[in-house]
Specification:
about 375 residues, alpha/beta, eight-stranded parallel beta sheet, 12 strands, about 10% strand, binds flavin mononucleotide
Amino acid sequence: MKAVNLLELEDLARERLPQGPFDFIAGGAEDEVTLRANREAFQRIQLRPRVLVDVSTVDPSTEVLGQRIELPVLLAPVALQRLAHDEGELASARAAEAAGTVFTLSTVSTCTIEQVAEAAGGPKWFQLYPIRSKEGTARLIERAKAAGYTAVCVTADVPWLGRREADIRNHLQFAPDIVPANLLDEIRLADLASGPRGPAGGAAAGLADPGLDWEDIDWIRSIASPLPVLVKGILTAEDATLAVAHGVDSIVVSNHGGRQLDGAPASIEALPEVVAAVDGRAEVLLDSGVRRGTDVVKALALGAKAVFIGRPYIWGLAIDGEAGVQAVLSMLRAEIELAMALAGCPSVADIDRSRVRLGPATE
Ligand SMILES: Cc1cc2nc3c(=O)[nH]c(=O)nc-3n(C[C@H](O)[C@H](O)[C@H](O)COP(=O)(O)O)c2cc1C
């Protein structure tokens, strides 16, 4: 692969993809203030390196929800991956397995829960968009459990879909073979109940439940049990406290890669208040704007157990399928190891709060 770092992938992928799918993946909501803030906020944080520490070997492996992973980076749930490559989620899940990390499958995937389980033996989590039908939501969770997924990650920041203006400008429409494969049965059932709802994508959007609240999290936990439940899309201490009160095992500090509420804070800026509110009672993960090994070290120093990447691996998928996603994870792993070595942290346990200084704007 020609890219030297993850930031260069976007331009390489632009050459491979039609404008509609490219903009759908790259874009953020409205003025894209939050999308840009995700990068800028990482750049304001300084690392405080320690020297004369033996870094002859550096080990970036860690554990999330009891699962050992070879690097503190997981693949985030990203919808409709066959837009990027014919093998879609199958290729991404295989690449995660090869790198020794977790693949998180979106509810809105183009390969089914079962196909992905069949294709890749590594650890897999299922991202849940609860749908309007409780029976349908329960069916999705049961399918993930039966197929061997080991956690359920409920995405909480899409009660309504963010306004991504590039998609509106492009009159974005997906090819007929780009379908939300897990939801086809649910769409058929919903159609039987309420008449036709147009193309599959639109019908899937119509299935999402804007009425979701904390009581539903209790219910989801009861169905998902014994699997751990994560809530993704938390940006405040108040919601982190509620998540803990509702027995959530892990919180994902995320603004959905700047695709939902424009003007929401960068995830890395929201991380300290969430970590303080959680106070060790749940694991805290983070995504949105992670592009460098130093970003990963900064997030870990501020209390994240690990981070997810979204767009970078989708660019790798578009450029070179499974090998492209593997290359992205290898590049990031090499950067993490280097950052750990230069910061004087031979293991992930050494990356503590003393290794970062927040910029003048925040401290
Ligand atoms: C094209 C695209 C589709 C996405 N689809 C989903 C999804 O189906 N479910 C979900 O929880 N998050 C989804 N996300 C958000 C990602 O899980 C993640 O929060 C975000 O991409 C992280 O930011 P990053 O792209 O800057 O790494 C999507 C993101 C992108 C770019």
